[in-house]
């Protein structure tokens, strides 16, 4: 065993490691620190992908307000109905192309929507009435079991919704929750949730939400 003495009194002998041992110690320390860093970087701050221990609803066929689930696979087809304005459609597509397509989801824009059968359009966007005070809402219209949904509806209160709302409601349609529905729970305004904070405030997914999507799909 080699002992490194920081302070030496007169007449005492100092035992120092040889050059080879010093290199081995340094290499071991570097590997240990790298491992600690990797563990810290890869650890998720919380589980915010439906279902979690704090999402009390079941994934069933529903109507507006009945709750979102998780889309059924990584091929994410979308349709924007005519009630969404041209400017609103641009915001939705920007969110999909810039935030969601770079994840393990593959966003597609079919030439027409499918509202029935085994390959329904995954997210149908529209505008219209929403619960009082909300800027948007997402719900499952056709569940397929296994906590998954073949078709979600996203409805905006405005035909030209804020960019943060388009990111937020799309997040719900692929399964991302609010902070209080995550496990363990977070504040609804925890900045690490990026566009999934409520009320929505930013237009980017952020690193945590991207990791949740990639781990699920």
Overall SS class: alpha/beta
> What fraction of residues sit in β-strands?
15-25%
User: What is the N-to-C order of secondary-structure elements (H for helix, E for strand)?
Assistant: HEHEEEEHH
Q: Could you tell me the number of beta strands?
A: 5
Low-confidence stretches: 1-42
Residue-averaged pLDDT:
86
Describe this structure as you would to a colleague.
The protein is of the alpha/beta class. It is built from four helices and five strands, in the order αβαββββαα. Strands 2-1-3-5-4 form a five-stranded mixed sheet. The longest helix is centred in the N-terminal third of the chain and has 24 residues, at 19-42. The chain starts with 18 loop residues before the first helix and ends with a helix. The model is unreliable at 1-42 (pLDDT under 50).
Structure characteristics:
217 residues, alpha/beta, 5-stranded mixed beta sheet, 4 helices
Q: How do the strands and helices of this protein lay out in sequence?
A:
Blueprint: H1 19-42, E1 75-80, H2 86-100, E2 106-108, E3 123-127, E4 136-145, E5 148-156, H3 163-173, H4 206-216
Parallel strand pairs: 1-2, 1-3, 3-5
Antiparallel strand pairs: 4-5
Helix pairs in contact: 2-3
């Amino acid at each position: 065993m080699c002992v490194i003495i920081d302070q030496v009194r007169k007449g005492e002998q100092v035992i120092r490691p040889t050059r080879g041992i010093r290199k081995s110690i340094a290499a071991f320390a570097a590997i240990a620190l790298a491992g600690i860093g990797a563990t810290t970087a890869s650890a998720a701050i919380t589980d915010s992908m439906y279902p979690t221990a704090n999402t009390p609803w079941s994934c069933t066929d529903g109507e507006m307000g009945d709750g979102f689930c998780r889309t059924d696979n990584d091929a994410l087809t979308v349709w924007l109905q005519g009630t969404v304005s041209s400017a609103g459609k641009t915001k939705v597509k920007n969110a999909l192309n810039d935030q969601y397509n770079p994840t393990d989801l593959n966003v597609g824009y079919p030439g027409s929507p499918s509202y029935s059968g085994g390959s329904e359009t995954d997210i149908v966007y529209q505008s219209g009435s929403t619960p009082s005070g909300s800027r948007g809402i997402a719900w499952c219209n056709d569940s397929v079991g296994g906590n998954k949904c073949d078709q979600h509806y996203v409805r905006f209160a405005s035909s030209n919704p804020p960019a943060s709302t388009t990111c937020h409601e799309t997040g719900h349609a692929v399964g991302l929750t609010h902070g209080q529905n995550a496990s363990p729970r977070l504040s609804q305004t925890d900045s690490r949730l990026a566009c999934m904070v409520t009320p929505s405030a930013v237009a980017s997914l952020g690193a945590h939400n991207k990791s949740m999507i990639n781990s699920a799909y």
